[in-house]
Amino acid sequence: MEIIVAGAGIVGVSTAIWLQRAGHAVTLVDREGPGRGTSHGNGGVLAAGAVVPVTTPGLMRRAPGMLFSGDQPLFLRWSYLPRLLPFLTRYLSHANDVHVRRYAAAMGRLLHDSVDQHAALCAGTDAEKYLGREDYCFGYATRAAFDADGYGWGVRRQAGVRFDVLGGAEYATKDPVWGDAFGCVVRCRDHGRISDPGAYVRALADHFVAQGGILHLTEITDINVADGDVTALLTSDGLMTADRIIFALGPWSKRIAHKLGVEVPFESERGYHIELTNPSAMPVNPVMVAAGKFVVTPMDGRIRAAGVIEFGGLDAPPSRAPFDLLRRQMADLLPGVTYDDVTEWMGHRPAPADSLPLIGANTVGGRSYSAFGHQHVGLTGGPKTGRIIADLIGGRGPNIDLAPFDPQKHVARQVRHPGRDR
After folding, report:
1. DSSP-derived 3-state class of residue 162
2. Three-state SS at 29
3. Average pLDDT for residues 94-114, to the nearest whole number?
4. Which Pfam families match (predicted)?
């Protein structure tokens, strides 16, 4: 078939490659080019154990205090609050144990083999050199802080995540850059790292093109819909049609999804990172700083600190406070590390209200597919998502329960009124 994949982040590029390997003629469409958005700026961790959503029990009680503190990893542009409220109400309604367990079961199935999925995707390509199999660690200031986080670790253990709990001094013998920064470190097995996410996605896209795929840089301005399904993309270069169209546009997917009747409650989570270039010392493993909810990752020639959640929409410029928070925290954590300079970045994570990505056909007819909404784990889940979409289009049933990710669960159901609706 002739297939269009809209969006050239890790999810879109992975989907294009797996479709190409299945024998389809694939065109990858993007406004700026591969790996320029969230796929460039993420934390670089293949977080196979990321099965605990942000919306855990007690979040509603904790959130106000976090929003009014400049030292907490949750920010809000207050002028955006009126537009945010409908989403926020739905988002916070999922801060309960039932939803956490449902989320963990679904995401565990999607993410558990993340490193192997990346290895299969990039094998034999120039992207292969960016893939590593390092542990993913969580650093706590004290053992008591780890114990207070026991709910989340219980959920991970139940989902099959393997981890060891170490004293901070013991861990520092293996990763000395941290010194006495942590009193307790949790080391998660079966994880991995991408040493330069943007370069990794671009190398995969180069491979796709070298194998005969088409990369078309243009802006998608609208879609044509007939009989409830998409028939064409309207772009700044004109009309584009195909047998199948996949939408992997990240946070820019909301408008198109809603036009197709997939009324998913959806927002952009604005994420921030800073990078210390040419540092005098490097961490061995990526480390989630539990108190600040950001990850510190060794990259090629730099240390990246990425995290923070800000709700402020797609259009507003970056805020200063998240950058300042990351700078203060890194100065406290790594006081002996020198570096040439600091660079800053802000991007957008696609956040459905239930935190579950949309993966599958938008309609029963299966002309268009969704592959977006991965929130914090787009890099982790991108290759497997692409493989699932390719299998669905090829008529092969993936060996995973896709019901939690089904876009059609969000389709608005119209109530018919006898005598009035015809």
Report:
1. coil
2. strand
3. 96
4. DAO
* Separation in Å, CA 270 to CA 148, 284, 286, 318, 403: 27, 27, 21, 8, 28
Are the CB atoms for 235 and 220 separated by under 8 Å? yes
Q: And the tokens for 147?
A: 């114990």
Q: Are 142 and 184 in contact (CB under 8 A)?
A: yes
Q: Band of the pLDDT at 413, cuts 50, 70, 90?
A: very low
Q: Which residue has the higher pLDDT, 149 or 257?
A: 149
- Which residue did the predictor score with more confidence, 251 or 66? 251
CA distance 409 to 203: 35
Residue positions counted in the chain: 422
pLDDT, residue 304, reads: 97
Digit-coded pLDDT (tens) for 5-25: 999 999 999 999 999 999 999
Report residue 310 as tokens.
Answer: 């800000």
Neighbours of 41 (CB within 10 A): 22
CATH 3.50.50.60 fits 2-410, yes or no: yes
Beta-sheet strand order (sheet of 131-132): 45-46, 192-194, 131-132
238: β partners: 235
Strand residues in 203-243 grouped as ranges (E): 214-217, 220-226, 229-235, 238-240
* pLDDT tens sequence across 36-70: 877 888 999 999 999 999 999 988 787 777 666 66
Domain ranges in the chain are 2-410
Residue pair 350/264 in contact by the 8 Å Cβ criterion: no
pTM of the model: 0.93
Q: Is 190 left (phi over 0), alpha (psi -120 to 50) or beta?
A: left
* Tokens representing residue 180 in the block: 């006495």
- Residue 46's closest CA among 419, 383, 347, 355? 383
Which residues on adjacent β-strands are paired with residue 275? 304, 343
3-class DSSP assignment, residue 4: strand
